[in-house]
């Protein structure tokens, strides 16, 4: 009999800056305690950056931002979805030192084992990023 995979965790938050902390806390609380502390810190940073981008650039005030978290293939994956079809752009150069924004995708790119922007079938997009598990599973 095949092993039943873990069911992905799903959250929906209002497209509001306060949702960034709520999303970060929800993801951190759901990660298994056995995982190394570094994975918690890295996933927290990924969550903050992706949800912040979705709230600022991908959703109107009355929209929601959706998060899905799941383990697969030796990684923990996070998908953050918003209703905008506009794709985020990875800068080729870091922003000026005094800039207050513009580093989010650079951090995602540096932390994630892989990441991509995936169009949603009916509306919007998902930004999916994965962190490698220390023990491969």
Outline of this structure?
By secondary structure, the chain is of the alpha+beta class. The protein has helices spanning 18-30, 37-58, 104-111, and strands at 9-14, 64-72, 75-82, 114-119, 125-132. It has one domain (9-132): Heat Shock Protein 90 (2-Layer Sandwich), CATH 3.30.565.10.
What do you see in this structure?
Helices cover 31% and strands 27% of the residues. With 137 residues, it is α+β, with helices and mostly antiparallel strands. It has a single domain, classed as Histidine kinase-like ATPase, C-terminal domain (Heat Shock Protein 90, 2-Layer Sandwich). It has a five-stranded antiparallel beta sheet, with helices on one face. Helix 1 (18-30) runs antiparallel to helix 2 and helix 2 packs antiparallel against helix 3 (104-111). The chain is globular and about 50 Å long. The two termini are 20 Å apart. The mean pLDDT is 90.
Key structural traits:
Heat Shock Protein 90, five-stranded antiparallel β-sheet, single chain, alpha+beta, globular
